[in-house]
Amino acid sequence: MEKTAAETNHAAPVAEQAGMPGLHKAIFAVLLAFLVVLPFLVYPVFAMKVMCFALFAAAFNLLLGFGGLLSFGHAAYFGGASYVAAHAAKVWGLTPELAVLCGTAAAAVLGLAIGALAIRRQGIYFAMVTLAFAQMVYFFSLQVPFTGGEDGIQSVPRGDLFGLIPLEDNVALYFFVLAVTFGGILFLYRIVHSPFGQVLKAIRENEPRAISLGYNVNRYKLMVFVLSATFAGLAGALKSQVFQLSSLTDVHWAMSGEVVLMTLLGGMGTIFGPLVGAAIIVTMQNYLATFGAWVTIIQGVIFVIGVLLFREGIVGVISRWIKRPL
Amino acid sequence: MFELLGIPPQVLLGQLLLGLINGSFYAVLSLGLAVIFGLLNIINFAHGALYMAAAFVAWMLLEYLGIGYWPALILAPLIVGAFGVLLERTMLSRLYHLDHLYGLLLTFGLALIIQGLFRNYYGISGLPYQIPEALSGGRNLGFMFLPNYRAWVVVASVLVCFGTWFMIEKTRLGAYLRAATENPVLVGAFGINVPLMIMLTYGFGVALAGFAGVLAAPIYSVNPNMGADLIIVVFAVVVIGGMGSIMGAILTGYMLGLVEGLTRVFYPEGSAVVIFVIMAIVLLIKPEGLFGRTA
After folding, report:
1. B211/chain A closest Cα distance in angstroms
2. What is the ipTM of this complex?
3. What is the DSSP string of A73-102?
């Protein structure tokens, strides 16, 4: 039988004990404490960008690392939600939380439509189908008037949270973004460690056996696809609020590639890998921005090295050293 | 002159010809992908980048060495094919025991590197490449004007596709290849050097992309992004056709080019997405692809 991508990647034995293991609790606590002081140490917008991409990569990892499905078109949900949220905030004048919800809902619907078609093929075809549909969303975004074509949707107002708390200030917005992304990542953690997550794992390891046990495999695949698309959308919608901008970059295939890279680098099928990968890639882009095309080349090199020598990713390697799932 | 649904025949035939040209590129590229996939079980994401690289090689041969179109049509695919062999030996061959997805990720990384390098050194504005003298101009067919070079692209692509089909389906070498696709271990046990065959197959698939790149150079300006968007459409073509059959890949390529051309006449806004819409319909009706075999 063929091995799935995540199977080769020392998948962690999860959810053997009830509740969150102490180590994970400690890491989440330290991470939260760090993130609370972070906006006073670095530029808050940069920190918010990292958090948005961390949520995006974690959502993508739910599908690849835990569902064993490689989508090469996650930019469609990220960028699609970003457009809808920006439109909702700017044209409909919705408050930030409602705008983000609109964007997220749009990503869920898009994920349902594309997912229902894509799960009809497996493996390599699945990747090509998702990529092709994402390209369709890209062309669509290029042509329809509401996205603003090449210009995108600019100067999106940040508005007042619940109509009460103004988010113009970067630090205020930071804590909104922190609450949503951290909550989102904890929710994804919960999904992975739920009975639903266990069924996903069973399907990933041995699909025919899961079918013979009576699981409706396609329904599970579609559910995880929609969940992943929804959280990718949540990340994209937040990003449009942070940068007050929604553009074609967010729906381009290069964005789909970036999220794959973040997950691969951090460690597929690990809890913390995507967060580490996102932090590294975003930081790298930030420092190398002046080098133009070199950023693409370096990303390509990381891909090649990652696939050839380093398939477990950073967190995967650490997890193996300390013999504990991370 | 007659008119069809209010569309003058010149417009219709002109767009059909354009569609046939795009179809030629779809056919040659998806053929290369299918040949590689058959033996290596890898989807070559770098296919578009190598197609672009061959167009640049043709341009460089002319610019730096004064080597013209006709030698370049042979040389550039050979150079790019040799580069493909190098990639296969040094990198891809390490991944055969793993999931197919790693091959996709690796070749995606390679595509980023190749595109990034060309973008760095040649910018994104595009470089002109002259149509060779023998094929410049065109002829008036009475009902439409046919540029010679475009006719040549169609003829050349049909010849290459037919040649590849003939080699794989009708010769002894092709029989080895098909046998190795079915069961590489058994073929190896008969004393056939399967790793060598895999290496040359990848090189050949890449050379096909290179051939398409040189054909494309005089039509489109030579620029680093020419392969990136094309390859995604070709992926959709491959999903529609299914990679099980060589002839299927070729026919699907031409057919979808024509459909795209027709869409440009009757509903121009839809021409960029029509292939993706067809892909959605095929997934609904016949998920394994028009010429695909059920796994």
Report:
1. 23
2. 0.89
3. -THHHHHHHHHHHHHHHHTS---HHHHHHH
